[in-house]
Amino acid sequence: MHISEPNCFMELDNEQQQIEDAKTNPGCFEPLYTKYYARILKFVYKRIESLDESRDVTAMVFTKALCNISQYRYQGFPFSSWLYRIAINEINLFYRRTKKARIISLDEKSIKNIANEADGVDGELVKALRQSLLYLSEDELLLLELRFFEERPFSQVAQILDITENNAKVKTYRVLDKLRKVYTQIA
Amino acid sequence: MKNYKIIENRPELTPEQIAHGMNFAVIKSNVLSPEKTLAKTAATKSVIIKVLVVAGLLTSSVLVYKNYNRANSGENKVTSNETIDNREYMVHDNESIRMATSKYLQFTASTVTKLPSQAAPLTEPKVTFVSGTQLTEGASKEVKPAAAVTKSNKTDTLVNSESINLVYKLTEPFKESPNAKCVLLSADALDNWVTAAPPITMNCTRCQFDYVTMGELEQNPNIKIVWLTVSVTGKSKFNLESHFKNIGLLKKANGITIQPVAIAIGAPSGNSNEGRVISDKFKADDLKVIFSKQVDIFMFFDGVKSGDRLIFDDFVLAEVKE
Description:
A: mainly alpha; 69% helix; B: alpha+beta; 13-stranded mixed β-sheet
């Protein structure tokens, strides 16, 4: 799954105008809400088991975004990166509050992406790879999710995590190394 | 190993499921609800707290700066023989000298009533402080306004009404501090007084002492010595204010309160007329004299007579006796 982000200057300009309007009039936030609601809901739903709870968290993401829209400054990143960052914080808050087990949504394509990147493992080791995911920290898992499960480019991963692109790459490959060691031991 | 829950091949959300949760009106109402107002209030509070902190810092900085300037400008400079800052002095006891003194004065320590550590305080209704007004004994009426109080011939004597803050109404019942004794001595009675004193400690902050010799005091025959002894258990602490403002002698004859010309704590330094005592010119931000077991203070008053009343720091009341 690849989520395309607006790259067109005209689209960005239009979005910036909507953001500026929303700073003075909350009603002007609606086009942004409509535009990004589905992406944020899917993003949250991949990390929270219940759909209703995902909707609640998504609603909270947009509430906080609208509350703090006056603090948003365009720094060359798309507006969605800011929303994803809020969503990550809200998801973490949700798990801290509810004490529930964190969800990892896996499909065949996701696991193959990691397997190819990790060592070109065959099908026999996929099970061990799944198991080895349980040994990663939340931050490490988030990196893998953004990069391999959701197939985001490094630039976007970096924007969402508020780090540099190179740092995102380094961190990602460190996580892959760790994953490789773990599943080798398990296998 | 972390407590993750792996869900495989989870179905994607359908457009209906997505659309079902979309409701911008709810988001907007949440933002415009009191929660937002609360957030605004919290932000306002934060700003107010920051402003207060900055104001506090500025105020303290100004105060520190002013004090620094005051300390450096020599604002309190007086013509004095000594300047002593934040020092502690110990005057050690000399038992033999003390015995000799007692014998000479025919006043032994045993005659001093043993009482609790704190001298009996003045009870409120019996003490009336009248600013700038002098009263006569028995007449129960005001006879002299403060402005009319004349200064004594001796320049050392403080009778300036501005400096008098202890005025005791003679008509009020007089309750003497039971553990205090006030004895009248002539100035030459200290000729045999030598450097001796009960142990005392002086805690001094920005003190500037000014001394006068016994010889100088004796030139005025009216100056007599009032020897105050107060028995205490443990330690007793007295403040000495600049110009002895907290020591007053209420004169029986006319109701005027005067301050001492000089005082000697423990004893005048030296055993002759050349001994020095602290003049009333001394200044101190804070001077505490701590006595152990017994308070001994010699106060030099101009024109003191038997029957006058000594008021020390609103704390000791004693009648001067021969």
